[in-house]
Structures are given as structure tokens and as C-alpha cells.
Amino acid sequence: MALPLNPGPLPGPPFTYNADLERLEIELLLEGVFRHFGFDFRSYAYGSIRRRLWKRVEAEGLKTISELQSRILHDADAMERLLLDLSVNVTTMFRDPTFYLEFREKIIPVLRTYPFIRIWHAGCSTGEEVFSMAIMLEEEGLYDRTRLYATDINDVVLQRAKQGIFPLDRMQEYTDNYIRAGGIRSFSEYYTAKYDGALFSPSLTKNVVFSQHNLVTDRSFSEFHVIFCRNVLIYFDKTLQNRVHKLFYDSLVMFGTLALGSKESLKFSEFETHYERISSVEKLYRKVH
Known about the structure:
The protein is α/β, with parallel strands linked by helices.
């Protein structure tokens, strides 16, 4: 029975709404995306994926999820637009400055004990976090013996990250974050105003490997001393979160560090007892067994 319903703050279904039919349409679309393109969003949190799909329906000038499915399966450009909607691309440089302060104080001394350091930024988006870490490691004298692996499901945002160009109008915000994060130089030393943006020094990416990687379907590709996956897992359901936590656990060296986002936690996960919390405030964890 169809009932009138406003589905939420983002664009939603027109006229009447049937929850069972909508869920079927969404499941079919996600199955089609997985089979045809290899991107697996089937275990993403339903509420989040639903809002993003309806946003794309409206942007494409369509009326139903089924119409969207037809378009993306036959139009690669439409699929690229949808992928941008489904990927989480909200980030800033030195986001959560107190996190970086804790990292400098508690993790950097441990990293100094390794002859070579491997760090994985999983779900790196447009690269702000990667550049933030490269700057910190440079200031701490560790960058030359570090390899940073920056991965994301979305190749479009990876290409933006490679360019190292960020909006000039964000530089004041980034500078404030950098100072609060314990930066020891003038932040403007790291970039040049160019191409209507801030072009960051190519030296910051000389030890960065940018690569497409799907946390849902791809396996581990190395062993890491630090894994960053901040503000990504909140979009996954519990089953997928545990699958990704297993991937991270298998990818970390013993006593390696896992960095999660402010709203994420290992609590109630299958791997909670395999880590100890490094910081009482920030979501930094050490693999202990």
C-alpha cells in the first residue's frame, strides 16, 4: 500500500512512496553496479546510500531509482557522476588538529625506531590528509624514509589528489588547522598560488603512491606501520565494518597504529580485543596481538 511520505532532508521519491518497492529498486541497482562495474556498495549503510541515490535521481532529471539504474548501466559518464556521489569526499588539511598533535606526540617517536616506514591512507579522497601527513613527516625528519600509499575507490578524486592543487580560499582555514596541529614552519612555504589555486610542492608527493583500491572487494597489498581510515567506516554496515577491520588487522605490523575518525570506534567490533587505545581522546589504536 503506497503511503505519502517525505523521505528526509535530501531529495526523495516523488508523489507516493512504497518502502518495499524502493528497497528492491536500490538492491537491484547496487547489484547491477557491482556486476557491471565491480564497485560493491551493497553493504553500505542503507540510509546513507538511499539519500545519495535520490540526490542523483534528481540531478539526472529522472523520477525513479529504476530509471537511474538504466542510465548508469548504459552511460559510463552517468556512472562516474554516481560514483562521486557515493564516495565520501568531504575532507580538509589537518582536519581535527588535536588528532595531529596526539600523532606527533605519541606515534612519531615510535616511527623513528623503524628504518623504513609504510603508511596507508585508505579512502584518501582528494588527498588533503595525505599532504597533511607528508608535511608532518617532513618537519619531523622522517619523510625521506617513508612510503605513503594513498588509495580510494574513486579514480577521479585520486587524479585530483595527484595534482596537489587545492582552493586558495581554503588556505586560511588550512593554515589555522596547521598551526593548531603543532606545525613548526610557515604553512605558506608548502604551496604556491598558481592555476587559480594553491599548488603544493611536488616534493610532498615524491614518496606517495596513488592507487585505486576498493576496501569492500580488494585485499591487502603490503604490511604497514600506520593505517589511516578516518570517517569512512561510518558509512558501512556492521558486517562490512568487520570485514574491513580484518583487512586492516591483517595489513598492520605488530604494534602498528590504526587511526580512525572521531565518530568511529573499535568498540563492539570483532577485533576490539586485538588493539589497545593509545589516546584517551583521539581514535588511535595499537595492534597488540
